[in-house]
Amino acid sequence: MGRxxxxxxxxxRELIGRTITVLALIIxxxxxxWLVVQVTEVLVLLLVSGILASGLAPLxxxxxxxxxxxxxxxxxxxxxxxxxxxxxxxxxLILSIIxxxxxxxxxxxxxxxxxxxxxxxxMLAELHARQPWLPDLAGILDRLPTMxxxxxxxxxxxxxxxxxxxxxxxxxxxxxVFTFYMLLEGAExxxxxxxxxxxxxxxxxxxxxxxxxxxxxxxxxxxxxxxLSVAVPVTAGLYLLRMPYPFLLGIIxxxxxxxxxxxxxxxxxVAILVALSQQTWQLIGVIVFYVIVLxxxxxxxxxxxxxQVVGMSPILTLAALLTGIKLLGxxxxxxxxxxxxxxxxVVAEIVREMLPYSASPPPPFPESARAPAPESQRPARRxxxxx
Length: 387
What we know:
Elements: H1 2-6, H2 12-38, H3 40-65, H4 76-130, H5 137-142, H6 144-149, H7 155-184, H8 186-194, H9 202-240, H10 246-256, H11 263-275, H12 280-309, H13 314-354
Helix pairs in contact: 3-4, 3-7, 3-9, 4-10, 9-10, 9-12, 9-13, 10-11, 11-12, 12-13
């Protein structure tokens, strides 16, 4: 307080210097925000690559420890290449399992479509007559041939979809390349990041990075577990409903689980489309079954599995998912949980630094609460001298 009173008035040169400094900081902050906005797509690709690298790193280390015939071991680059090759073969196997029955089922569905529409129209017209507030689905069926004949006007939209598909394919290839180099040079990248911090903080930063990597790997394992938790019950339920291709529809449901918000709905749509060519009770059973699945999956399975594997509370998991979907749509929902888990690690470390007592060990037991020592460990009593 005394120093503030003794300080002289600010000169014009000092005022101009401080003003220029504040303006420079504002411009720098604006430039950084603009730069982050411009490279958001690249940052998202790097984040996805980091998550994949954290999840695949244990498999790479396992391959490095595995001895091939001759007593030799895989180098790290060769282990990563072998893992990529194995994943590519699994992807082709799943794709062949899906495509071959899907093409056959689509051909059969197209052949039965006129009969199906003829059978559905009286039912839909009667439903609209009983419930006028429902949409006129029978009228939509009558206008369906005209709508199909006018598909040529959707040419520009189809071209836009094709370009988006090519852009998504390019992004996938970029993520695979980033992931390869992150797996190959992960130790060097980590040392470079740690070197940016003061020497006294490097041990703590290394621990935080290891915990974040563990969270990322746990999230990837949780996603695979979620896919399995959905694919197996869907396969069993559709088999009990005597649906054709229950294994195929279960795989589609499991893959759709990897896509937040729309993936499970797409899997249900495929199953209902197949059920349209079956008996009425099967169609109703499939609809009821998927209504149950679509309610159990987001409200019970996702929070529980993420809580057990990633270590996040169910309410935090749901909040992160909703926030991510609100901000970035499907991609935000996909990355929301791992980003929230990383922020949880950082915030916990900050709290531990600000509140040292939160990390202090528990107080020792009082002497009265300790268990008595065994007879062999007790000090020998001195016998009184005989008088």
